Amino acid sequence: MTSFRADLHCHSTCSDGTFTPAELVAHAVKIGLSGLVITDHDTTEAYPEVFQQASEAGLRMVSGAEFSSTHEQESIHVLGYSYRIDHPAIIALVEKHKQRRHNRNTAILKKLSDAGMPLAPESIENVGHTTGRPHIAKALLEKGYITSIDEAFRTYIGDGKPCHARGEPVTTAHTIESIHQAGGLAVIAHPHLIKRTHIIDSLLALPFDGIECYYARFPPRQEKRWIEIADQKGWIKTGGSDFHGAVKPDNDLGNSWVNEDTFNLLAAHYSRHS
Ligand code: AMP
Ligand code: ZN
Ligand code: FE
Ligand code: FE
């Protein structure tokens, strides 16, 4: 029996979480996790600084991020693990997303302004690298245009709603290729959330290395399908909480996790490819 637990999916203030990377590491240690990966949206800004703090605290970490991508017009989140954060392919991917988000946020603010809800661009600036719809929702709330974050997504900026803008897509295939070029592993995040299920067959034909089978918000019976697919393909079965801090308070760090063998697959991959 081992008590090793590693949470492979969480967000810091570098994207839309409310804990700083240092606070995430401290919280992971406090709740008894042995391994952690911070997977901010479209940035690896939390790294490499946290590695030093984690290693002093006896917490194992590998690099990670959750990249936004598009496959056949469906939004697909791709988790990248154990890649070289300073590799040109990753730097280029992060830069592409920075530009995409800047353009997209400008388009969303224009639509909101046209709908009578102007926001100053400074009001959605994030302390970290990645700014997106959660920051816009917060600014709408602070201005009093809406009464809850959920209302912002439901009524204005959720997928397909009147003030939403998609931005230039980055394909899932290109995302996987960039992660591979940087020596990393590419994993399908929360497959349970894919809305247009007819795209799943072609998605599964892409050269992924793993699939996120264990995800706190879904019951075990939903895991079974993805576990079977991973076993068939010889893919790594990953898992994590998708912790965001105070903005999603019912979902704590460590709510989903993997064992030491799975964490070692990620860590060993880095040793072999760096
Ligand atoms: P973006 O990356 O800018 O497209 O924003 C998407 C992010 O918004 C997701 O990763 C979620 O964290 C968050 N999100 C999506 N829908 C909702 C919702 N209904 N309420 C709160 N947050 C949401
Ligand atoms: Zn998020
Ligand atoms: Fe996600
Ligand atoms: Fe996430």
Brief overview:
This protein has helices at residues 21-30, 49-57, 88-114, 133-143, 149-157, 172-181, 200-204, 220-233, 260-273, and strands spanning 6-7, 35-36, 60-61, 64-71, 74-81, 185-188, 210-215, 236-240. With 274 residues, it is α/β, with parallel strands linked by helices. The longest helix is centred in the middle third of the chain and has 27 residues, at 88-114.
Write the layout of secondary structure elements.
Blueprint: E1 6-7, H1 21-30, E2 35-36, H2 49-57, E3 60-61, E4 64-71, E5 74-81, H3 88-114, H4 133-143, H5 149-157, H6 172-181, E6 185-188, H7 200-204, E7 210-215, H8 220-233, E8 236-240, H9 260-273
Parallel strand pairs: 1-2, 2-3, 6-7, 7-8
Antiparallel strand pairs: 4-5, 5-6
This protein binds adenosine monophosphate, zinc ion and fe (iii) ion (2 copies).
